[in-house]
Design goal:
The protein is an all-beta fold. It contains no helices and eleven strands.
Length: 118
C-alpha cells in the first residue's frame, strides 16, 4: 500500500523559504509521477507542480515558476518542494500526491500547512 508522508511546513515571513518533503513508501516509484497540490482557505485545491520519477522532468503552475523547485531523492524515495520568495498568497495546506502513469492521482498525503506572513 502506498503511503505518502509530508514534512517541513510551518510559518515563514514573506520573502522567505521553506522546503517540504514527501516520504513515499509501499511501492517502487519508477513508473510514478509525484505532484504537489495546495488548498488555500475557501479555495479549490490547485496543482502546484509535478515530477516524473523516471526522467526527473518537472512542470509547474505559472504562479510558482521561478520560485518553487521539485526534486527527488531516489535512494530515499523522497520528493522535495523547495519554495523560495514566498508570498502570503502561497499560504495553504500542501499535499503530496502520487500517480501511477497513466492514471489519476490516486494516492495522497495527509497535507501539511504552510503559512506566509506579510
Amino acid at each position: 500500500q502506498v503511503q505518502l508522508v509530508e514534512s517541513g511546513g510551518g510559518l515563514v515571513q514573506a520573502g522567505g523559504s521553506l522546503r517540504l518533503s514527501c516520504q513515499a513508501s509501499g511501492r517502487t516509484f519508477s513508473n510514478f509521477a509525484m505532484a504537489w497540490f495546495r488548498q488555500a482557505p475557501e479555495k479549490e485545491r490547485e496543482f502546484v507542480g509535478n515530477i516524473i520519477w523516471r526522467s526527473g522532468f518537472t512542470s509547474y503552475v505559472d504562479s510558482v515558476k521561478g520560485r518553487f523547485t521539485i526534486s527527488r531523492e531516489n535512494a530515499k524515495n523522497t520528493v522535495h518542494l523547495q519554495m523560495n520568495s514566498l508570498k502570503p498568497d502561497d499560504t495553504a495546506v500542501y499535499y503530496c500526491a502520487a500517480q501511477e502513469t497513466p492514471g489519476p492521482y490516486k494516492y495522497w498525503g495527509q497535507g501539511i500547512r504552510v503559512t506566509v506572513s506579510s
